[in-house]
Amino acid sequence: MSKRPDTAPLSFSEKVGYGLGDMASNFYLGFFGLFLLYYYTDVYGLAPAAVGTMLLVTKFVDAISDPAMGLIADRTNSRWGKYRPYLLWIAIPYGLTGFVVFFGPELSDTGKLVYAYVTYTAVMLAYTAINVPYSALLAVISPVAEERTKATQFRFVFASAGTLAVAAFATSLTNWLGGGDELLGFRLTMAVFAVLSIVLFWTTFATTRERISPQPHVSSVREDFGALARNFSWLVLVAAGVLVITGLMVRLSSTVFYIKYYMGDDGAVMFFIFDRAAVFLSLASVGQLTGALITPFLAARFEKHLLMLAMNVAHALLLVVCYFVPPDNFALIATLHALGFMTFGATATLLFVMYTDCAEYGEWKTGKRTSGLIVSASLFSIKFGSAVGGALPGFILAAFGFVANEVQTPTAMFGIRLMFNILPAVLMAVGGLCMILYRIDRATLQRIETEMHARRHSEVGDDAVRG
């Protein structure tokens, strides 16, 4: 018999527990976004263009694995629910694969590249296996849209805290644990974040519940994809997400290069134990955290899609201004960077709330709940944007004549400035403008919530009669 959905407010501990899962995710995404390209080129000795190609080629695996994981999760039935058990089962593989990416064995140039392909593919598969269910859990954690928004706020507060931890301590931990050996420092620092990630995902599993119990999944894969393709607002959101995440990752992947080569940072301590890169990245993470915190306040007063449009256009304008700031004005560049990440904190929070809104809309329209598929396809768009955003700087560095650990030519320096400011600005602006086409507004959501509440109560009554 189906259970009547529990509409009670989520407890503080459950919202915290749910948020910790994204902290675990951002230990990896933050570390990869900030340091993976730098690690591969300046530490492990791979060519920038080869790394860019690797980041793109491996996405063909994700194109299959992400939707497949969504289909599997939607069809999972266990005593822990559909999505929660994967947080328990996949946490250790997730931790191990993250560690081996930065293990850095001494191999030939070809061997190093093959090792990068294999280990990066493995960690992305583990990321898919745990993050598709984790993200889909949001759609069933409560039948009330307001409660899902609150859970999403906690999610991105802790996501920002995870990124802040990486930004603030990664370079210091690398220097301290490595004792001057940068490769060893990266290896041991990643081991710390891997262990923490395992513990955090297990905590999420232990503290959350699935409150929506859909009817048994009987539709075919073809029918599920057909329902997804008819969800126009989801298609718009995916397009916007790809563009925004690509822009963000282009900037993130460029940050270490911009600070090291354009701003002339020599790695000296600037404040307490933190070097200039750590301070710069930490301020951005504080900005992102602030953006996540203020999102519910803003979302209660403005339509979510229009708010997302405004935030992305504002971010683009900040990036354009930053392009004209001279490299010795660290304070102004850091301030503009932090303000940009404050707008992104709001954008990221809105993006995932709106994905769950699209899941509700899809069930309302078709009668089929495919939260796992919607979230997995959405997650692929984010991973695809991350891959493209991480790859483009590699190609730009190669095209503009960048040589690792050397004084850069004016042409190479222009390429670094271009990929840090102008290219992300264009992508952010176009991504924001996509939201003009988004159709799910506040009035539609209120109608969906009312009608779905009645429909689920009717299903409970029908099951009781049949029972």
Structure in a nutshell:
It contains 16 helices and 2 strands. It is mainly α and 467 residues long.
Keywords:
mainly alpha, Growth Hormone, Chain: A, 78% helix, disordered C terminus
General description of the model:
This protein is mostly helical and 467 residues long. It has a single domain (12-210, 221-456), classed as Growth Hormone, Chain: A (Up-down Bundle). Helix content is 78%, strand content 1%. It contains 16 helices and two strands. Strands 1-2 form a two-stranded antiparallel sheet. Helix 5 runs antiparallel to helix 8 (182-207). The longest helix is centred in the last third of the chain and has 37 residues, at 330-366. It is globular and about 70 Å long. The chain starts with 11 loop residues before the first helix and ends with a helix. Mean pLDDT is 87; it is low at 463-467.
SSE layout:
Elements: H1 12-43, H2 48-57, H3 59-74, H4 85-89, H5 91-101, H6 109-140, H7 145-178, H8 182-207, H9 221-229, H10 232-262, E1 269-271, E2 274-275, H11 276-299, H12 304-323, H13 330-366, H14 371-399, H15 410-433, H16 442-466
Antiparallel strand pairs: 1-2
